[in-house]
Amino acid sequence: MFVEVKDLKKDYGIGENIVHVLKGLNFQLEKGEICTVLGPSGAGKSTLLNLIGGIDTLTSGEIRINGKKIELDDRDGLLEYRRDHLGFVFQFYNLIPDLTVKENIEVCGFLGKKSLDIQKLLKDLGLKEHQNKYPRQLSGGQQQRTSIGRALIKAPTLLLCDEPTGALDYETSKEILELIENVNREYNTTILIVTHNEAISRMSDRIIHLKDGRITKNEKNPSKTFAKDLAW
Amino acid sequence: MKNVLKKRLPRYLWKNIGIYGGIALFIVLMICLSAAYVVGNQGIRAAFNDTKEKNRLEDGFFALSVPMEQSELSEILGDSIELEYQPYADLLSSDDSEVRVFKMRHSIDVPFILEGSFPDSDTEIALDRLYAEAHDLKLGDHIMVGTENMEVSGIIGLPEYIVSFKELGDLLADREVFGVSIVTDGFFSKLEEEKMTYQYAYKFKNELSREEVNRENRDIIKKLGDKGVLTDFCAIGDNNRVNNLLSKLELNINMSTYFMVLSMVIVAFLFALVSVHTFEDECSFVGVLIATGYKKKTILRHYLTIPVLVTLISTGVGLLLALAFVYKVPTQSVYAYYVVPKMLYTVDPARMVFIIGFPILAVIVINLIVFGRKLNLTPLRLIRRDTKKEKRVKNAHEMKSLGFLNRFRIRTVVRSKGQYVSLVIGVFLAGLLCMFGLGMRSSFDQYIDTLPDSAVAEYQYVLKSSLPNSSVIPTDAEKDTISTYETEYNGRMLPVNVLGIGSDSKYLRDFNVSALGKDEIIISDIMAAKLGIQEGDTIELDNKLTLHKWNAKVVEIVDFELGVYVFTSQKTLNSYLEKDEDYYNTVFSDGEISGIDERFVSTVVTKEKVADSAKQMKTLMASLIVMLTAVGIICYIIVMFMLTKMVIDKNALNISLLKVFGYRNKEVNKLYLSQTQWIIILSVIIFLPLQYFLIRRIWPGMLNSMSGFFYFRVTPLVMAIIVVLGAATCLITNAIHVKHVRKIDMTEALKNRE
Question: What residue segments make up the domains of chain B, in order of their start?
Answer without folding.
Answer: 1-57+280-388, 66-228, 404-455+607-754, 478-589
